[in-house]
Specification:
Elements: E1 3-6, E2 9-12, E3 14-17, H1 27-54, H2 61-90, E4 93-96, H3 97-130, H4 132-138, H5 141-167, E5 176-177, H6 184-189, H7 196-228, H8 234-263, H9 268-279, H10 281-292, H11 295-332
Parallel strand pairs: 3-5
Antiparallel strand pairs: 1-2, 3-4
Helix pairs in contact: 1-2, 1-10, 2-3, 2-10, 3-4, 3-5, 3-7, 5-7, 7-8, 8-9, 8-10
């Protein structure tokens, strides 16, 4: 264990992420499973970002926020998943003090921004469905940028407060983090100084970053569902309910697991299990639930694929003509 001296205390300069060492027999299976999840997550979210940027039909408020969400999910997954995969390969990963807190910063930043962006997206859908006549003027370009900026900035403010408090703690051993990433809950257990202020700050910020967004999301969907009930078409109602229920299930799982991890004392096994529900699941399923089931996105994807196919055909024909011309020149010689 790498340590340095400060007075009579031996301070930790390196942590060891234990990951899923309680599941040693499943390390290879877990690695392959999480690797597949990471690849699918990155591919799905990158596809959404590219489609939203490249296709003018998707330059609307809803897809602007979806593009922001996908950017967040890419950052979120890239902060956690490579470290987790390395931990599974090594059966425990050494991580420096600075790298650990850097991961904590980016994780907390994305988490806070995600909480508010999900509520902004539900508010956008509420305006589009319940206030369609005022939607164009209310959710203009300036307002979209402002709401997205508030989400990104809110994540920075929250994690900055936690980082200042966490860095004031003294870490004098042990240095083993019984988790798959650097989080405040397992890190506090390794501190040999008073963590009371950090715990209170965690609770207050958890309330600020979960309850208002969750209540706004639920309220928005109550109004949306009320509007859906007025739809005369049974097929239309079923389709709308299916979409709304999918959104609500993912959002409820996300906020619920988040509150469970940080508010309810759990064993390390339960802590890791609940953490998977808000760190791994949302980035994986959000592209499917919010975007890839949408007809406009499907059409944009088909148009993009047809352009790629047309380019390949053009390239093949051009290569064939160049080859024929080259052969004709050789024959004339």
């Amino acid at each position: 264990m790498e340590q340095r001296e400060r007075g009579n205390l031996t301070l930790v300069t390196q942590f060891i992420l234990l990951g899923f060492q309680d599941l040693k027999n499943l390390q290879v299976l877990l690695f392959l499973g999480f690797l597949l999840i990471y690849m699918v997550t990155m591919a799905g979210n990158l596809l959404i970002v590219v489609l939203v940027i490249a296709n003018q039909h998707l330059h609307t408020p809803m897809y602007f926020f979806l593009g922001n969400l996908s950017c967040l999910e890419i950052c979120y997954s890239s902060t956690l998943m490579p470290v987790m995969l390395d931990t599974l390969l090594r059966n425990g990963k050494p991580i420096s003090f600075s790298s650990c807190f850097l991961q904590l910063f980016f994780f907390g930043y994305c988490l806070g921004a995600d909480c508010y962006l999900l509520s902004v997206m539900s508010y956008d859908r509420y305006l589009a469905i319940c206030k369609p006549l005022h939607y164009g003027t209310t959710m203009n370009t300036k307002k979209c940028i402002q709401l997205a900026a508030v989400s990104w900035i809110s994540g920075f403010i929250g994690i900055s407060i936690i980082m200042v408090l966490m860095l004031q703690l003294t870490y004098c051993g042990p240095n083993e983090i019984d988790h798959y990433f650097c989080d405040t809950v397992p890190l506090k257990k390794l501190s040999c100084s008073d963590t009371g202020l950090v715990e209170w700050a965690n609770l207050i910020l958890l309330f600020v970053y979960t309850m208002p967004p969750f209540l706004l999301t639920c309220t928005s969907y109550v109004f949306i569902i009320t509007a859906i009930l007025r739809i005369s078409s049974t097929t239309g109602r079923q389709k709308a309910f299916s979409t709304c229920s999918s959104h609500l299930i993912v959002v409820s799982t996300y906020y619920g697991s988040l509150m469970t991890v940080y508010m309810v004392p759990n064993s390390s096994v339960l802590n890791k299990a609940f953490s998977l529900l808000y760190t791994i699941l949302p980035p994986l399923v959000n592209p499917l639930i919010y975007s890839l089931r949408n007809n406009e996105v499907k059409r944009a994807l088909r148009r993009a694929l047809s352009k790629v196919a047309a380019f390949r055909i053009f390239h093949s024909v051009l290569s064939y003509l160049v080859c024929i011309k080259h052969k004709q020149r050789e024959g004339s010689r």
